Amino acid sequence: MEISEMIAKAREAQLLYQARFDQQAADLVCRAAAKAIFDNAEMLAREAVDETEMGVYEDKVAKCKGKSKGVWYNLRDKKSMGVLDIDERTGLIKIAKPIGVVAGITPMTNPVVTPMSKIIFSLKTRNAIIIAPHPKSKRCSAHAVDLILDAIKEFKVPEGMVQIIREPSIEKTQQLMAQADVVVATGGMNMVHSAYSSGKPSFGVGAGNVQVILDRYIDFNEAADKIITGRAFDNGIICSGEQSFIFHKDDREAVAKAFRDNGAYIVTPEEKQKLIAAIFADGHTARDVVGRSVFEIAKKAGFEIPKNTRIIVAEGVGIGADDPISKEKMCPVMGAFAYSNFEEALHIAKTNLAYEGSGHTAAIHSNNQANIIKAGQEINVSRLVVNAVSATTAGGAIQNGLAVTNTLGCGSWGNNSISENFTYKHLLNITRIAPLSARIEVPSDEEIWKY
């Protein structure tokens, strides 16, 4: 089917859905869509690993289950249509309306949960959506969409509300972006740039390069376990996954022991050079290491690692552009950097993020609230994860208040239009009814200018 035909079908379906589905009906559809992924997590995870040849089966199962229930939990009590709010003081009324047709661009790194979340956000807001999957994950993405379509069929959702390009290509994706009403792009920077150049309102994401600060006087063993869990999750292909940890120089021995005890292999200077050559090509993560295991990476680099290794760690000899280990690494490899005082820790984090990953995410393990707030004030990121696994919580968690999603805005720092987690509210147009309120007395010029 041609893209123009898919768009026409989507527009017709969207108008019917908007007319027939109230808040309760739309929410039941969203629940069914999320449950379809939750119930088929094992099958979809296996298909994703087999087709893309990247990631970890068990982690993809956890991702399918965690994201599906998290998205539904996050959305189930939210109002997304009709009158949203009436301001008691001004009388201003906000009315939510759908945008129309969404172009959902999805990556091979998250070929199941990213289509799912975009579809649910669209159904929640009574928008139609057409998914453009990565060509190397087209089968598992299509199967996820088909399972959702089967699950929502009983609610008589108009045919065309949810569609997917079965044989994706760059040309078809560009046509979709040009003809849709809004673009939500999750994927490589080239695709995100293309979305912003489509001439349509677009939501994209920047590169991730999560810098993790280890404060003084914390439980290093607990912190190391969480950091390593995040870096190892799905073999390091999560954009919110930990990339580098920054530790106090006086804690070097204790930190190294904690990381080794929890499965980190710390390379020698000679091994580091081999590692850099293996994981980077032309300044970017080499394609053949993306989402691959530590053992495949070590084999390519030409050195051996213990059987219990979860991640590989290399210490930086410079920061930012002075050492490539400071860059984003889409595999279970981490950088490590020593600092002399907290100000220097912040400087290292900011320098590495300015080199790559500005605006995305940082993390801190600390018992010092003043330092936590200081990090939030000084590091230009859209989210700062505290004492938790960044890979699995930066994209939203039931306990942390961040919207559950797979699209993480990076603000103007990352050339993005939003500096928060993308969710259903970004797919709404708002009409504001604005009467003059007799309850508000207009102050005199003297009162207004008094300071």
TrEMBL record:
Keywords: Oxidoreductase
Domain of life: Bacteria
SUPFAM superfamilies assigned: ALDH-like (SSF53720)
Gene3D superfamilies on file: Aldehyde Dehydrogenase, Chain A, domain 1 (3.40.605.10), Aldehyde Dehydrogenase, Chain A, domain 2 (3.40.309.10)
InterPro entries (alphabetical): Ald_DH/histidinol_DH, Ald_DH_C, Ald_DH_N, Aldehyde_DH_dom
Domain Aldehyde dehydrogenase: 2-394
Keyword rRNA-binding among record annotations: no
PANTHER family, A to Z: ALDEHYDE DEHYDROGENASE-RELATED
Protein name (Swiss-Prot/TrEMBL): Aldehyde dehydrogenase family protein
Taxonomic source organism: Falsiporphyromonas endometrii
Phylogenetic classification of the source organism: Bacteria, Pseudomonadati, Bacteroidota, Bacteroidia, Bacteroidales
